[in-house]
Amino acid sequence: MAKKIVLIEPYTCLPVDSGGKLRIFETIKELSKRYEVGVVMFYKDKEEKLKTKEWLKSIKIKSQFIKTESRSLLSFIGEGVPYWFSEWSRRTKKRMNFEYKDVVIVEFSQLLDVVDLLPKETKKVFVAHDISSVSFWRRFLETSWLKKWMHFFRLVEVYWYERRYLRKYDEIWVMSDNDKRLIKKIYDVDNCIVVPNGVENIKNIGGGDGDEIIRLGFVGSVTHGPNKEAIRFLIDDVVVEMERRGLNYRLYLAGRDNLANNNKHIINLGYVKKVDSFYKKIDMLVAPIFSGSGTRIKILESLSKGVPVITCVVGREGIELDNEYLRTVNLEKEKNPKTWVNEIIKMKKSRGKMNFLKLSNELKKYQWKEIFSKVVI
Fold first, then answer.
1. Domains of the chain in sequence order
2. Residue 211: how many other CB atoms lie within 10 Å
3. Confidence of residue 250 (pLDDT cuts 50, 70, 90)
């Protein structure tokens, strides 16, 4: 008899417009092939709830949806505290009433504390999409002096939050060996298993037109701090350097709520339903991700489409590939736009000479079906 598993998610998985939602979608899809799966999801948008509920019903998965309560008018601290520490958030979580069976899988840091609401006899698994204290530490280092006090306050609270609750789980799934090492070092927790992010299919769809125009792309919404920082660096630094050199370029931005600009060479595509249409437009993905943690699905996805990537040390964390399709800007030069433009020019020149067959063989270990076939619950 198949084990009964309940997944607890902080938001719906449809539409799949972020790496986190894609991970949720693929986890449900793959685990339901081998186990009896139920889902608890918190939501804000009614339309997203209905779409997700319909999909879950089509694959015969029981679900419970809980409306996330609005922030209290008394919550005057604003950005000073991550929302999962607030009283309204705790009240929301207590409304779960799913029938918990053999295993409960909890995803994302904002739900870590639900472990206190679960039966003692249930196996408890936490999926660490990133290490929040590491993300907050990097944001603290990057932010202006006027905001450092706020980020330091968040960092301390997040650190003790993770320290308290990570130890209550029987098993922790991390995105990479590096995350496993960091959790051991920071929290002295040694029950981590690497279950990396991945891609569904590997197929070379081309990209760019092979002319003199350099077509760059970036995927991600500015609602996520590291993405906002990356887009600003691309627009304010990389683009300015490209124009100074007189290069003919286009920059395509895919994602919700991206920054408005008046540059005719920067095209805001908004949310892209069919990602292949985006990757067919560009020569390369440029991902100056300087903060956050975890593994960037956008980089793996781009590579799986045959579109090369230029990123930096933090951006490629957890991606174990040694291939010409993936280039990394050195840590010492990662904030220098001249270095990025030099790499962009090199990538453009070598674009048509790359060996996709070699890349596809290296990427097979990052296919979702391969990843979850090795997971034993």
1. 4-195 (3.40.50.2000), 214-364 (3.40.50.2000)
2. 9
3. very high
